[in-house]
Amino acid sequence: MMGSLYFSEVSGFTPCTLCWYQRILMYPLAGLLAFGILRRDSHLPHLVLPFSLLGQGVSVYHFLLQKTPYLGSPSSCGVGVTCTTVWIDWFGVVTIPLLAMAGFMIITTGMLIVIAADSGGAGMIGTYRWPRWPVPLIVLAVVGIYLAGSYRAGKVYFSLPAMDIPTLEDLPFIDLSADPTATPGPTPTPTSMENGEALYSQQCASCHGENGEGADGLGTALADSPYVSGLTDSEMMALIRNGRAAGAPDNRTGVAMPGSGASANLTDEQIVDIVNYVKSWQ
Ligand code: HEC
Description:
Elements: H1 2-10, H2 17-38, H3 44-67, H4 96-120, H5 134-159, H6 190-203, H7 205-208, H8 226-229, H9 233-242, H10 268-279
Helix pairs in contact: 1-5, 2-3, 3-4, 6-10, 9-10
């Protein structure tokens, strides 16, 4: 629970619909488990399992939706942020739904162990005594995570150095011999434009609007923004590649923009196409 609140409140990642279902199933467990363990309630597994099994189902579905093409189109879940937006991608597999899935799995397994231990005894429900020692440990862990999170959030807000934005030399496809203020970068070809339009509506439109008009609380307007017209092509490419954390010093809305739109593997060429398309509105 603290982890997911950290992602949404501190990192500024907007939860999608499926994330909300997982939260609805996960958050009550924090209280249920704490009270159940304290009261040594042997019925606890029967209260917890419906939540944890359902939650696990949603997480598995969400993870497969993000990581495989079999379950539907990228924007298959409603308005707002799409369910396939990948906010974190540690080691190429660890996404937020995977973390939720692990959480639900640990809880489910724990409950199954308790049921097994209960029925393995004299066959009498209620004889199993819950150990109480995990409770203070868990409380300590939660408080610790909370303190660490607040400390880190403070650091991010107050002392993060400028973001690691690639220089022109890192972007080999840009013609350095040309005057960057005079030329619009690579000449947009019709196919680049069409690609850009398709990619934009898949990866960006859910937050920035189908015609760059922006969406409240999700993404800024791009079509008529003086800020966007002031960005050079390479600055815009760097921004699209790296995203912008909610706490970054140059963030203007307090909402995070995910790196590479909604999918971690946009190629440089695809980003050029998107930039061409977005610039065509200016
Ligand atoms: C999950 C929502 C989300 C998605 C998806 C997203 N963005 Fe953003 N984008 C944002 C937010 C929020 C900001 C504003 C960040 C700030 O406050 O500085 C932003 C800022 C920008 C900016 C700078 C303009 C400004 O007003 O700060 C550009 C350009 C941009 N996005 C382009 C894109 C492109 C191109 C894509 C698709 C590849 C994309 N974004 C996908 C949320 C999103």
